[in-house]
Known about the structure:
Elements: E1 25-31, H1 38-41, H2 49-56, E2 58-64, H3 72-81, H4 85-88, E3 94-97, E4 102-105, E5 114-115, H5 132-139, E6 144-148, H6 151-155, E7 164-168, E8 175-178, H7 187-194, E9 205-206, E10 210-211, H8 218-225, H9 228-245, E11 254-260, H10 263-270, H11 275-298, E12 304-309, H12 318-323, E13 329-331, H13 335-348, E14 354-358, E15 363-366, H14 368-373, H15 378-390, E16 395-400, H16 401-405, H17 413-419, E17 430-434, E18 438-440, H18 452-455, E19 456-462, E20 469-476, H19 480-488
Parallel strand pairs: 1-11, 1-12, 2-20, 6-7, 6-11, 13-18
Antiparallel strand pairs: 2-19, 3-4, 5-8, 7-8, 9-10, 12-19, 14-15, 16-17
Amino acid sequence: xxxxxxxxxxxxxxxxxxxxxxxxxxxxxxxxxxxxxxxxxxxxxxxxxxxxxxxxxxxxxxxxxxxxxxxxxxxxxxxxxxxxxxxxxxxxxxxxxxxxxxxxxxxxxxxxxxxxxxxxxxxxxxxxxxxxxxxxxxxxxxxxxxxxxxxxxxxxxxxxxxxxxxxxxxxxxxxxxxxxxxxxxxxxxxxxxxxxxxxxxxxxxxxxxxxxxxxxxxxxxxxxxxxxxxxxxxxxxxxxxxxxxxxxxxxxxxxxxxxxxxxxxxxxxxxxxxxxxxxxxxxxxxxxxxxxxxxxxxxxxxxxxxxxxxxxxxxxxxxxxxxxxxxxxxxxxxxxxxxxxxxxxxxxxxxxxxxxxxxxxxxxxxxxxxxxxxxxxxxxxxxxxxxxxxxxxxxxxxxxxxxxxxxxxxxxxxxxxxxxxxxxxxxxxxxxxxxxxxxxxxxxxxxxxxxxxxxxxxxxxxxxxxxxxxxxxxxxxxxxxxxxxxxxxxxxxxxxxxxxxx
Length: 502
């Protein structure tokens, strides 16, 4: 079992010596659920954007996320902050918030309003750490914008001072934002939505896997998100953002984050060894190529710095591994909740003992108000809950809040990954680490563990000052932010736990 070794020093050459002009535009490209080995496994099929990155970029073939819960929100929060949940406060895709006394998502904002649609608004107000985008805003008049099909993919990387973030609404096919950023949608976004470019895929075929519906509907707009057509739509929206906001056209460095989300639902549905994942990876290569040609025509690629990475990888389909005589499987998502609640009921009587989870992990938040009302020791109740969790099959390790708060000795790499994600104000009372090749999900394939198949992602820098070449040293995604900040001549984000790659 290989786990990420936290990197404190590196010896690779990343930046060329001497002065290099600052880029007019920095683009962070993210492919959601893109395993690091997809770059090599499908290399012979790439002949466009990914091929260009691999040939012209500084490529790190062994880059990893440095926290134990490898899901979309913590991964996106880490990219431009240089830190994990311990610093960013983004514990999972969703978790139990003690202040709101309810389960919340990483970007839920009850004080803002949705622009362009309905429902609960979203913003980066739960993000605790500054980002490279925030540092650019402090340094001058840079524009910082995030876009994605997912709200958390658009919102978390740019930071709290971003000018805007836009995400896709599967109910309407529109791109949304919130009043956290501005009082109303910019005219160009409303115009993009009114053009109904989302409906251009009606009746089209993602050959040979899917034929799109013949009429627009909620099901159709959801199917756009779950196919490569979603990434095509996002690339078109990115072009509109650059044109309309005049990104890269001034004497400052602007930042655009584009997180391509469709790879993730495809990976969950079919698994990393499927023909569908292979094809969407090839389609990503083509979409990146189209975007690079647009950037070259409008700004000039010599004026653009591109960084490519992913928020997490994914485990293989358990049935496939079992057929290969490997131990693997799915864990019941509510298993820890039910097991712990049942044990505490038997020990202390009736009550709602578990109030929330760090989803999609099996981590548990206990009902602290109930524990206090019964005059019980919170530490002891946590210990009893942890004992029950350890009895669940295929759980490799269990931690309690007190164990981490007491400054436990770091015995191995797994302990370090857990500590990188421990935040005393937001962390669960009980943390469960599944055994290798097991995960908490009903999906065909999933992620969220500290193991290499979930933590290993691409990391490529391309642009002036970055020397083309491949480097095999193990690096952390936390190194992205300070390395990029160093190249831009701005301070690294204050909470960064990464290091400048020399």
